[in-house]
User: Which sequence fits this backbone?
């Protein structure tokens, strides 16, 4: 491989016709869209996932709860059973035209599909988190006359979220990386931005842009990892033995590996 | 005649095929301290948990405040506000500090009652629009800020009472077992319950902490708090209980005042049990 030639072509492109500015702008916009859709998707995912998890773990005496439970099961099966790319294509090119919606912003479609998709995964994560909270917490709340929902919201879910923060961090990282399929519905995300740079001026040279793409993704993921650690520390405030139990968990994980 | 707080009739409870409670009749009088003892697995916890419907009775009636709690149509949350429960494992809310543990339920309940009143006033206002006779609006009582302040004040008083006021901002994980259990007890007290149920409140404690929890319960007994206590502390039962109940094989085999109960047991199973634990 002739690296110096590839590098020259890249620099040429970047500096051509005030390309310098443009390059930064394209990269920046792509990055922004990737982060924006992943963040909004995760937020929607956490909201939907928590609701579904609450239905999944709820006692199934009432018919209404059982029906909701079935709906949630179908929803989770669909969004976990198909690739997110297929979901995007179906939503943007099949479902929306079918119901007569035109000219909708593909970014909005991206946010919604990422949110719905993530909701299905987060619901499983959250269910595990809720199950990991001692049943005594729910019993104590109920014994004081609080309703199931109130105890869930005020007591159980905050503790569940604390327990699943690392896993939620992983979900966020997955979302960030999966945004690369947004280009299928014409969104210019980080990946598409670098593709556009690679093909600019009818000069097709992918090597340097793709290396940059990989590096930017890695930096993003490392930053998120740091962020999640910080949030974990914040949550650990109410738990003196947090560091201890975490150590135990990692040790267990290591043994399993 | 003493006032009956809680009355249980022919209470039965099965888990699947297995019948754990086989027909229990039981009255709790106001101000009474009842200690329930019995061999492990005989259904003491199940019995206690049926009283506030943590477990739903399979059949029978539980009368409290003029309603049958075993009836599924009863709003159990309203009644549970007046039936405190103290657990073996304390069950303090791990995500809340001590003072919030105590004030959470009183504040939420007061808020809920207030919004119910507000809704009623709204309906009255609408009715007043269309009728000549104006119905006066209901008094909403304290505003939200005052509710919170009063609850905090009361919680601090309760904490002072158990000499733990300096731990108001601490989280449960930083406390000893004895401290946790005493806080769990005052958390129940903060609701002004008519009766408190204790399920082996000292069984998960290190021996040196048992005393402080029993002492608090002794004080409550002196103040005529109505209590139903499952425990293995025979000394405490003898000293504090008004009535001791021996449960075995899903029924009440014997009940008596502590003096007779311990010195002159009748049932052979009880004699056998006492010879093992005393
Ligand atoms: N949720 C449940 N599902 C099935 N069986 C149960 C359940 N809870 C309790 N049991 C059974 O009911 C019986 C009575 O249990 P319970 O906990 O009431 O006994 P206990 O007298 O409190 O015993 P201990 O002194 O050990 O606390 C036991 O055989 C137990 O296995
Ligand atoms: Mg028990």
Assistant:
């Amino acid at each position: 491989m002739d690296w110096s030639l590839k590098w020259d072509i890249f620099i040429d492109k970047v500096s051509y016709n005030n390309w310098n500015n443009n390059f930064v702008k394209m990269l920046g916009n792509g990055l922004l869209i990737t982060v924006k859709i992943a963040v909004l998707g995760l937020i929607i995912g956490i909201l939907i996932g928590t609701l579904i998890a609450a239905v999944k773990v709820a006692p199934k005496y009432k018919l209404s709860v059982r029906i909701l439970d079935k709906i949630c099961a179908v929803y989770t099966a669909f969004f976990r059973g198909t690739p997110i790319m297929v979901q995007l294509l179906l939503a943007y090119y099949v479902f929306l035209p079918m119901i007569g919606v035109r000219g909708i912003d593909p970014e909005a479609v991206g946010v919604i599909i990422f949110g719905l998709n993530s909701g299905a995964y987060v619901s499983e994560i959250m269910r595990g988190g809720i199950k990991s909270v001692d049943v005594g917490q729910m019993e104590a709340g109920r014994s004081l006359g609080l309703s199931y929902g109130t105890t869930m919201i005020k007591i159980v879910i905050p503790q569940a979220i604390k327990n699943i923060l690392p896993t939620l961090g992983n979900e966020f990282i997955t979302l960030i990386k999966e945004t690369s399929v947004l280009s299928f519905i014409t969104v210019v995300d980080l990946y598409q931005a670098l593709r556009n740079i690679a093909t600019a001026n009818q000069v097709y040279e992918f090597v340097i842009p793709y290396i940059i793409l990989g590096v930017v993704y890695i930096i993003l993921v490392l930053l998120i990892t740091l962020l999640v650690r910080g949030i974990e520390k914040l949550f650990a405030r109410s738990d003196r033995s947090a560091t201890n139990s975490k150590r135990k968990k990692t040790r267990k994980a290591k043994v399993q590996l | 005649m003493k006032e009956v707080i809680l009355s249980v009739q022919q209470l039965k409870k099965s888990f699947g095929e297995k019948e754990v409670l086989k027909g229990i009749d039981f009255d709790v009088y106001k101000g009474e301290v009842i200690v329930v003892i019995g061999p492990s697995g005989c259904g003491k916890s199940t019995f206690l948990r049926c009283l506030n419907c943590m477990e739903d009775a399979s059949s029978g009636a539980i009368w409290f405040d003029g309603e049958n709690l075993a009836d599924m149509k009863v709003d159990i949350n309203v009644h549970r506000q007046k039936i405190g429960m103290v657990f073996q494992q304390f069950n303090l809310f791990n995500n809340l500090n001590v003072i919030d543990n105590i004030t959470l339920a009183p504040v939420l309940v007061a808020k809920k009652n207030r919004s119910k009143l507000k809704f009623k006033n709204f309906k009255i206002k609408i009715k007043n629009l269309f009728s000549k006779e104006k119905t006066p609006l209901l008094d909403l009582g304290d505003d939200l800020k005052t509710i919170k302040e009063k609850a905090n004040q009361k919680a601090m008083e309760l904490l002072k009472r158990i000499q733990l006021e300096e731990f108001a901002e601490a989280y449960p994980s930083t406390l000893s077992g004895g401290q946790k259990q005493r806080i769990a007890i005052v958390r129940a007290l903060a609701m002004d319950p008519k009766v408190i149920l204790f399920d082996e409140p000292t069984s998960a404690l290190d021996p040196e902490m048992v005393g402080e929890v029993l002492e608090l319960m002794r004080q409550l007994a002196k103040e005529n708090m109505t209590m139903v206590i499952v425990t293995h502390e025979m000394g405490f039962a003898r000293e504090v209980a008004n009535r001791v109940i021996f449960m075995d094989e899903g029924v009440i085999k014997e009940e008596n005042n502590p003096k007779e109960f311990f010195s002159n047991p009748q049932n052979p199973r009880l004699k056998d049990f006492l010879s093992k634990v005393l």
In short: Chain B has a mean pLDDT of 94. Residues 98-130 of chain B form the longest helix (33 residues).
